[in-house]
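Please produce the structure of this protein holding coenzyme A.
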Amino acid sequence: MNAAIYPGTFDPLTFGHLDVIERAARIFDRLVVAVGINASKKPLFSIEERMDLVRQVTAHIPNVDVDSFEGLLVEYCRRKEIHALIRGLRAFSDFEYEFQMALTNRKLAPEIETIFLMPKETHSYLSSSMVRGIAAMGGNIDDFVPVQVRDALAKTVKPR
Ligand code: COA
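Below is the modeled complex.
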C-alpha cells in the first residue's frame, strides 16, 4: 500500500492544512496525519484536542488516519514503515526552513523522501499563530478555519 505521513503541530488545523491533506489523500492510498507533541512549542491546544480536531475535520476522507508522535520524525516514519513525508510549501518564505528540514531528515534517513505540495493560493498566507491571534482579539476567522476549529477556539481563547 502506498502510504504517506503529513506531520505538523496543527495548533490548530487551518483550511491551508486541510487543503494539503485533501491533495495528499488523492495521491496516496493512505495518509497518516501525525500531530507532533512538540516540546519546543507551547501549543494552545493539548495533543488530544489537536488530534480530535484533525479527526473531526477529516472525517469525510476515508483514507486519512490521525496519530501523534514525539521525538524524531524519521524514527516515527521508520516505526510506521512509511517512506513518504508530505510538507506544504505556502510561499517562498517557507522554503529555507523546509529545505533545511528535508535535507536533515534525508541525512538521518536516506530511505525517506520528502514531498512538497502547494496549498491553494487563497490559503497561502495562512498560519496557525495568525488565526490564534485574530481569535484572541475577537476577530472573524470563518474564512481561515473549519467550523469545528472556530468553535474550539471560541471556547479556548478569551477575546481581549
Ligand atoms: N496551511 C496553513 N498553515 C501552514 C501550512 C498550511 N498548508 N503549512 C504550514 N503552516 C504553518 C502552521 O500553521 C504553523 O504556523 P505557526 O508557526 O504560525 O503556528 C507553521 O506553518 C509551521 O507549522 P507546521 O507545519 O505544523 O510545522 P512545525 O514547524 O510546527 O512542525 C515538524 C514541523 C513537527 C514536522 C517538525 O518540527 C519535526 O519534525 N519535529 C520532530 C523533531 C525532528 O524530527 N527534528 C529533526 C528534523 S529537522
